[in-house]
Each structure stands twice: as C-alpha cells, then as structure tokens.
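Lab notebook, bench 4. We co-purified these components, and the gel suggests they stay together. Before we commit to crystallization screens, I want a quick structural picture of the whole thing.
Request: model the full complex, all chains together.
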Amino acid sequence: MSIEEKKTGAQPEGQDGQQMALDDERRVKVLSPGAMVAKRFFRNKLAMAGVIILVIMFIFSFIGGAISPYGESQIFEDYEEVVSNFAGATINTDYRYTEAYSGSLPTTARTSMILAVNNGETTYEAGENTYQLTEIGEHCYVISGTATVAQADRLAGSYVLSSDAIEVSDDLTAAFNDAMNSGATTFTYDGVEYTITGSGRTYYISAMQELGFATQEIIEADGLSYEAKKEALLALLNGETSFSADGTNYTVELDDETAIIFSGSEEVGAISPYSIQGIESGTVISTELRAQIIEAIANDTSSFTVTDAEGNEVEYEVVRENTRYTIRTASSTRLIQTYLAPSTSHWLGTDGAGMDILTRLMYGGRISLLIGFVVVILETIIGVVLGGIAGYFGKWVDMLVMRIVDIFYCIPTWPILIILGAVMDSYQIGARVRIYFMMIVLAVLGWPFIARIVRGQILSLREQEFMVAAEATGISVSRRIFRHLVPNVIPQLIVQCTMALGGIILTESTMSFLGIGVKFPYASWGNIISSVSNVFVMTNYWYCWIPAGFCILLTVLGFNFVGDGLRDAFDPKMKR
Amino acid sequence: MSEQEKTSVQTADDILLEVRDLKKYFPIKGGLFNSVVGQVRAVDGISFKLKRGTTMGLVGESGCGKSTAGRTILRLLERTSGEILFNGTDIGTLSKKQLRAIRPKLQIIFQDPYSSLSPRLPVGEIIGEAVREHGIVAKEDYDEYLDTIMNECGLQPFHKDRYPHEFSGGQRQRICIARALALNPSFVVCDEPVSALDVSIQAQIINLLKDLQREHNLTYLFISHDLSVVEHISDTIGVMYLGNLVETGAKEDIFRNPLHPYTQALFSAIPMPDPDVKMNRVILEGSIPSPANPPAGCKFHTRCRYCMEKCGKEEPATYEVEPGHTVTCHLYADGNKKLPELPPQNTNAASAAD
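Here is the predicted assembly.
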C-alpha cells in the first residue's frame, strides 16, 4: 500500500460527501495481511536468496534422485587387467618319489630311506621288508627291495603263476615248479633270485625288484611312464640328449640343471630342481606351462608367452628374488572404483565405497529434508496441541503441561540420542526403521519449544480485547479459537518452525556423521561426510566431503534466511 | 425472587437494566499452595436502574472499578454476588447456552480500537461474523444489511474487504460500533469509547453514538473519566469511588448541585475554555487507596476535606437528597440539601501536594 492510498484510507471521517467519491475504482488492490506479508517477504532479498537456495535443494534432492542414472547404493566396479603374482618357483630340497608301480613305495619305505641316505647306508629295513639303495646321481637313488612279485596257485597238480609286476614266462613257471618239487625255497631264473614263501595251495614268490626312485629333481611329465621318467632323469644326470623308453624316442634339451623332454617336437615334460606352486590355492598349472616356466628360468628370460586352453595368448613374466622365482601374469580382477576423481560419468567422483557421490548427495538430500520436515510437523502437532491446551485453559492444565515442558528441557539430548543409537545397533534394527525411530525421537525431544511459543502467544492473545469482543458478540468457542486465536499464532509458528528445520537437519547430519543416525544403504549428508574418517581422505579426496558439507551449509542457511525473512515480514513494525 | 422480578417489570416497564448490590472481587493468590490470601474489591456493591433509551454516565478516576462494573454487567466477568436484571432476567444465573442467545442484546464498545479488532479478519467479517452466527437477518439480506449498518456508522461498503490496520483510530471505533450495532442490541456498554481518540474525532463518535441511540432506541452505560463527554451524552450520572457508587442522579442535578465531596473535587477539575475564569479547584490529597485493602468506614474519608470522626468508623448510608439524586455520605444524615461551604484550599499547599 503506497502512502497516497493510505491517506485515502485514513482521511474520511464523517464527511459523507467526500467519502462517497472514494470508490473502489480509485483504490489499488486491497491487501490482506497475508498478502502484505507476502509482499514484504518477496521484497526481502536475503529471504528470496533463501527461497531460491531451498527450491534448488528440493529440485536437486527430489527430482535429481529420479533423474540420476545411478542407484542410491550402486557400487561401481571395474574389471581390470592387473599384473599379479601367479606362481612361485623355488629350488626343491625334498625327495620326491617316483613309484615303479602303484603302491610300490609305502610311506614307511620313503621315510626310512631319508634316514638311510643321511646315514650313508645302502640297505635299510622298513616294516618287514628290506630295501636297497643305488645312487645314480647326486640326491638320486634307485630303491630296490624284496617284494612279492607273483602268486602261485596250485591247479591240477601244478602251479600257475600270476603277477602284476613281472612277466610270467613258461620258463619261470617251470623253474618254480622245479623248485617246489625239489622242496627248495629259492630258485634262480634269468639271473634273478626268487624266494618262495607260503604253504598249501598258494605260494608267494618274492624277488629283489626295483621299486622306484627318489630324487630332489622335480619331474613334470604326467604323460610319461615310470621307465621314461627314469630314463629322462638318467639322461639329465648323464648329460645325454636323447633316450628311448617303451619304444619311443625322446630328445632332451639340457641346460645346466634342467632338462626339457621332447617327443618329436612336442614338449612332454621337464625335469628341474624347481618346485612350482600357484600363489592362490586351486591354481592349476598345466605341464606345458610348468615346462615353459622351467625353460624360462633355465634360459634366464624374463617373460614368455603361453597359449592357454581357450586359445588366448597369455604373457607371463618371471621375477627372480634370490633363490625364489615369481611368475607374474596379467589377470582380470574385479576392482571397486573408490575415490574416483570427478569425471563426466561421475560428476563428483565416487566415494570410499565406490558409490557415485552426486547421486548419494541427491538421495541424501531427500532423507535429510524429509527427516527435517517430518520432525518439524510432528513437533508442531505435539507442540500446538499441548501448548494450545495449556494456553487456552490455563490454571492447573497450564501448570501441568509447562512442568512437562520443563522436564523435557532438562533431558540431555545428545546422550539420549547416542544411547538410543547404540540400543538400535544392538537390536540390529534395519536402516529404514531406524530412520522412523530417529524422526520420532527427535520430535519427542524437540516439541517443548513450540509448546512454549504457542502457549505464550495464546496467553497473550486470550487477554486481547478482540477476544473479549468476540466473546461479547456470542461467537462459539471453536470459532473463537480457530478464527480469532489460531490465525494470530500461525505467523510466529511458521517462523519458528522454519528456523527449527535448519536445526533439525544439522542434528540429523551430526547423528549420521557419528553413525547413530541414517545408515547404509541409505544416504544422508551426514553419513556422506562421515566417510571422511582420516586426514588422508580429507586432504586428498575433497570431492567426498566438501559437496555434502556445502549442501548442509546451504540448506541450513536457506532455512535461516527464509525464517528471518518471514519473521521480518510478519512483524508489522518492519516496514521495508 | 420471581415475585420481585414481576414487580420490577410491572412497576417500571421502561426500566431496561437494574443492578442490585453488584459485587466483583478478584482473589489475590499467594502462599505455598496458591491459596486465596486476599481480595481486590473492584466493584463493591453498586446498585442503579437504567431506563430504556437513556444513557447513564459512569465516572470516576482510574482504577475505581468502572470498567470492571461494565464487564461484570455483561457477564464478561463472573460476578461475585448481586443481581443484574436485564428486562427482568438475571443475567448472572443464565446457562452458557442462554447467555449466548442473549449476547446480541448486550454489546460493548471498547476503549482501544486497535486491540479490539482482530488483525487477521477483514472488516466485513468482523462486523458480520456474529450476525451470521446468530442469524440476525436472513441469508439473502445479509449483504444489504451489512451495507446499511456500515453506512449508518459512517463506513463505506468497500471497506468490507479491508483489514483493520488500514484504518485510522476513529474509523476503527466506527467499526467497533458497527460490530455492536449489527447485532441489534438494546443495551450497549461504552467502555471509554473516545478516550483513545483525538478531540475532533471524539465529537464525531459521540454524535454518532447519540444519533444511533435516537434511531435504535439504544440504552447506553457510558463509562468515562472525561466529564465534558459525560455531560454531553448522559441523561443520568453515577460517580464511582473505589468500587462504590457514591452519587447518582440526573445529569443536571449532579452538575448543578454536586453533593458528595468526591464529586465536588472531580467536577472542579473540568477545564474551563476561558483563561480569565478563576478556577476554584478542589485538590484531593494523597492517592486512591488500594481496593484490596480499602479504608474502614467511608472509603473516601482518607482524602475527604469534610472528614468527621464517624467517617472512619461507620459506613455511610445512601440518602435521596433530591428526587432521583442519591448520595452516600454521612454529611446528609441530618437532612443537608447542599454541600456545606469550606474555606478555599491553600493553593501553595495544593501545588506542593501535586
């Protein structure tokens, strides 16, 4: 209302003629108190800045979350080729046994052998058997022993021999039968002395037999027979470049301590002092790969390429540390993209858990603002009802309500919040229910100030003459309360609630920061900041926490500006 | 009781309001358990009759209980004892429902036109709210009725949509009057309606009130401490001192022949618009005693120039000195018709006392 209009409004006093001329056409718009407030509010630059901030924050939080292509708790991963340790190779110092046939060297034979070797003995006994050691090279022994080689069953007056270990020839059978007939317990056939044990229908024939060999060399040749392995070892020991076994000719590529065995051009095995094991348990290292590794070690090459089962060429690299060789290869690894710097796909980068910070901020804003509003609405409902009752009815009701308010003011808020947070932790309450609890707790702890304001306002308004006038005109009580009392309380209430909103958002952020508020998977500005738990993150990954802090700052500032603006606008003395 | 009522209706059918020994005490609470430790005797037994269509001026200094009396009569405050007979019905005994029904007949205009209008309602709503609430006129006539009432009170129809803050004090008081008048009352308490207004506007409002009284046959209880205003508007006058009505009578009688020493002192303070006239002022010494602890005997004796021995001991009776002119003072016990002359006060002492 301009000054001129004011004059026209205030001027006519009883001068009827003049007054009649002041019709509606000459007046500009009549402003209700609400419109006046709005006008004053919109003229307040700071308040408008606050409104703009809040509108932006709301759009950012509520619409931004819907627009964002990422989910609230979506974790970004990447498969990356990372050169990692694949296998280790060390010089072996344990004896490895190669059996002539399955079960020929029982465990007792193996352990006793080491003892015998250490003692320099060439024969030793283990269990009921006697074993003989024949050194064929350094740390290479052929183990022989008396072993049952055949079984003789009496059939139709003569014995029939059967055996897994030796070839049963008619001559051998005849020699056995001769021995049996002569009552001898030993017989010699083809230069080998056999001993006969047993009785009745079944006899066992034992003989000195090659049972296997023990060596510290590691023979990687699954496809080769015992004979071939032994020949290969002998070839290595003797420095021969070829051998034949089982009717096949093999060539050996010798290099110092190792030997690579070829059958034709195919690599069929390798002998080396190196024990090769995968770094991760369960890694399968094929014979070919082993051979390649040994070859690489032998040749002192630092890398080689192997074609794997799927036909891909995999490059390996060999690193030597003293006596240990590490074979490294590039493998595909799942990587969580933590602390990514801002980029076009992640405008504010990602946080320590690999989630998009901008998206988290949007969802966090939703929760922070929602908590703020819900808590303020709950506070207002409780505060207005209790404060209104206290103010309107006065006397003992007022006394009672105000004492309750006093008690609530005495409750130390933070210890209660922290304890409740811990209790919810121990009961493992879900993240969503936690938010609801948090809203209720904050509202229950926060209503007294609204009750006080409402009560004070109503107490003072109740004594205003317009309330007496309303009573004198005989208007009903409910109408007096809702038409005359409440509209006069609302301005104060709106101002206080707006101011309180900022405070609640701060409280919520602090709680979430301390880990007693909103929890993963839900985002809140507070728990986004709480990911910054050390100086390193704080100084190196500014984009993790500055934006969230900025959001809190802006929102609280916005609410305070709007609150101040509303207070100035509602105050009739503030005529800007 | 019912017999009494009947007789009062029969004997004086033109008497609209009769107040009999009305008392209003406010309890003073204190002590540990908020017990009543004393009472403020704001209205301590007043009685008067008010004829239909007349105005009674209630005068007295600040704090003497004028406003309390006005509000107690309208039952905006609950009386302590006494009867308020409005058209023969005791307002004090009505139930809330009955009271609400009778409210429109008894209206009040307040002193402060700023605080007596709800700031968040438009003027039309302020005036018309109760009209609709009580169904004073039919719905279809409502707008027209409102315009008529506003016009009568010197307001324009387009003022309806405005809010109180857009009006000056005088106009606000017109709104207050319109609010009271719209309910078609028969009795209006005017609680110092002009004391917050400047002099030129006072006259307009007083004239408006007089015009309305003539047109609507209204009965006013006009509470004021401004004697010139009271003289202008009243038919009868009641002088109050510390909760008591010390003198009542027709306006002419009281102005011509003030009987009570307090009335004399009060009237001597009316300013004369002539600088040459030597004012014979009676200066009251000391201040008004506390109504919580009023003096024994005649309440005025602590400040009375005519104070006698028995004034401090006995409460004076009410004497009808002239027809319709009553006074409550020991001076008239022996049939005095006039206040005895006393030597004029020492002006020096008076100014010192000021």
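The longest helix of chain B spans residues 199-216. Worth comparing against the SEC data before the next meeting. Chain B touches chain A through 44 residues (CB under 8 Å).
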